[in-house]
Specification:
The protein contains 14 helices and 15 strands. The protein is an alpha/beta fold and 388 residues long. The chain has a domain of 200 residues: Dihydrodipicolinate Reductase, domain 2 (2-Layer Sandwich), CATH 3.30.360.10. A 9-stranded mixed β-sheet has the order 14-13-12-11-7-10-9-8-15, with helices on one face. A 6-stranded parallel β-sheet has the order 3-2-1-4-5-6, with helices on both faces. The protein starts with a strand and ends in a 6-residue tail after the last helix. 46% of the residues are buried. This is Oxidoreductase. Belongs to the Gfo/Idh/MocA family. One of its GO terms (molecular function) is nucleotide binding.
Length: 388
């Protein structure tokens, strides 16, 4: 397969899993508007053609393309690659507005070109194993999910570049939270119909050390020594996104969920608690070797030993082996079609929930409805985008 990449930034590390000459796939072209992106691509993939022209990429006879641009440019690029008939991998979140996300689905639906969204957490062992517990029936029917996201690297990852501006991300509740909102939906087996949220720019707004970091990337400034959060340096000149958010969700199957995100914690991990009609489970750590604990027996002695402990599996590659599995699934889907673990509908619903939660947060915290999708789109994407 001849594969192209648009945008050679932080998520460009996926190229390693695509570029397998002699094993079925090869990155043959990279398109990036920045000189640094083109230079990095030329250094890492010397056999690939490097261009700043999207038109050149669209006419290169590609079998698939990865759209890895900043989030607010996903629709701008993906709509064109889809309408050009190129099976398209779009990095998550799908985009940063409901309208943009829907324009990508519309282009895929109308053109019949295969669309895949890079929600790699659907391949992460901690999430896969928690879903296996749910599907086994051990904890019964899921009625509630609580997710706490301790974003210990938040100051370095999200407040020193374009992520810090609403114009680029809408909110970190959307940009960072799209991962977890999608996981909550997947574990609960439903989508949000109504959301509400509160939040604040509680810490980083008061940091006065600011710098335009457009000449650098996160790897240039990241350090665990950047602590405590109030003493961070060289933050983005504009910061108008929240650094702490709390979101409530009502799902279409009656389940309730909440998502809390904080960008100034000392630790960095996600904690999911899933409560069903027969028990509950919770992950203690989200990396290989950490534990998922399951309680299915009644007790009144406070915190007791779980009935089951499950060690989180390991895998080769980024995110506990999720990244190579993600790319392998995309390439297979681009080639052959069929069902996938990720879902364009789910990706859109995660964006819509995040967008509406951000609106709620900034308008008093009231509950807001999620805009519905056309039934024909839902049927088409849920069927695996069959050839029409």
């Amino acid at each position: 397969m001849r594969v192209g990449i648009v945008g050679f930034g932080l998520r460009a590390s996926l190229w390693k899993h695509v570029h397998q000459p002699g094993q079925g796939s090869e990155v043959v072209m990279v398109c990036d508007v920045s000189e640094r992106g083109r230079s990095d691509a030329a250094e890492r993939i010397p056999t690939a053609a490097i261009t700043s022209s999207l038109e050149e990429l669209l006419g290169a006879g590609l079998d698939a393309v990865l759209v890895l641009t900043p989030d607010n440019r996903h629709a701008e690029i993906a709509v064109q690659t889809l309408r050009a008939g190129i099976p398209t991998f779009c990095e998550k979140p799908l985009d940063v507005t409901v309208e943009a996300a829907d324009s990508i689905l519309a282009a895929a639906y109308e053109s019949g070109t295969r669309l895949y969204v890079g929600h790699n957490m659907r391949h992460m062992p901690v999430v896969v194993q928690m879903r296996e517990v749910i599907e086994s029936g051990q904890i019964g029917e899921v009625k509630a999910i609580w997710c706490r996201h301790f974003v210990g690297n938040g100051g370095d990852y999200y407040f020193k570049d374009w992520h810090a501006e609403r114009a680029n991300t809408t909110s970190l509740l959307l940009q960072k939270g799209a991962h977890d909102i999608d996981v909550i939906h997947w574990l609960a087996g439903g989508y949000s119909t109504k959301v509400s949220a509160i939040g604040d720019l509680a810490v980083y707004g008061g940091v006065t050390s600011r710098r335009d970091n457009s000449d650098r990337r996160m790897g240039d400034w990241f350090s665990l020594e950047n602590w405590p959060p109030t003493e961070q340096t060289d933050l983005n000149p504009i910061i108008d996104v929240e650094d702490i958010s709390m979101m409530q969700m009502v799902l279409d199957n009656g389940a309730l969920a909440s998502y809390q995100q904080c960008h100034f914690t000392p630790d960095y991990w996600r904690n999911y608690m899933v409560i069903g009609t027969k028990g509950r489970m919770e992950n203690f750590g989200d990396s290989p070797g950490d534990l998922i604990k399951v309680w299915t027996s009644r007790s009144q002695n406070g915190f007791v030993t779980p009935d089951t402990e499950i060690e989180i599996r390991d895998g080769e590659g980024g995110h506990g082996g999720a990244d190579p599995l993600l790319i392998a699934e995309f390439l297979r889907f681009a080639r052959e079609g069929g069902m996938t673990e990720t879902s364009p509908i789910a990706a859109r619903e995660a964006v819509a929930a995040g967008v509406m939660a951000a609106q709620s947060l900034r308008s008093g915290g009231g509950a807001l409805e999620i805009p519905p999708l056309p039934a024909a789109w839902i049927e088409y994407f849920n069927a695996g985008q069959p050839t029409r």
